[in-house]
Write a structure and sequence with these properties.
Low-confidence stretches: 202-213
Number of domains: 2
Strand content: under 5%
CATH class of the largest domain: Mainly Alpha
Structural class: mainly alpha
CATH topology of the largest domain: Tetracycline Repressor, domain 2
CATH architecture of the largest domain: Orthogonal Bundle
Length: 213
Amino acid sequence: MKDWSDSVKSAKRDLLLRAAREEFADEGLEGATMRGIAARAGCSTGAIYPIYESKEAIYADLLQHSLSSLDAHVASAVQSANSPKAQVEAACAAFLQYYMQNRFEVNLGLYAFRGVKRQGVGKSLDDALNRALWKVLERIAVPLAQLRGLEPADVRPWVALLFSQMIGALVLQMSGRLKFLKTDARALLDLMLMQIGASDVALQVSPVRRRKH
């Protein structure tokens, strides 16, 4: 009976998460309500509370799933690289690729469905999500530290620089703002990696640059 009960609960959770994706995309974290999520899931709010205590808990679970998928994607890319320099490049490229293929999750990670603003889902949930994010970024930090002969904690500023550059480039590309500059997120990443000595690859001409005007 326990296996059946767990299966039912898992199916309900998946249904709620799908409904919540729609609710957060349309209403943002501030505007979303448990009632709205319930309506999209075709259930009552009373059916949600045994699984999630708040909309913030649902949002955190969505983001946790996103970060876990991102980490698996980045980890797989790193495993295929055979040197610290190649691992840094592979991790960053996989990070960009994942978010370009899952654009909803960029907004999810930035709490940015209704403009970028400082938001959170409560200290304990925020702390857990930050740990999950660092697990991903550590895929970059460890080989970068090896490359520079440092400890992973010592390269956090460089990792932060790469992270901020990649997120910024993703947002700009998704909004079409890089097109008029005749570049793209991957070209900017290649340039940043060369600047920190983590890639020997020459800056490639992007498809946008090859267009004739």
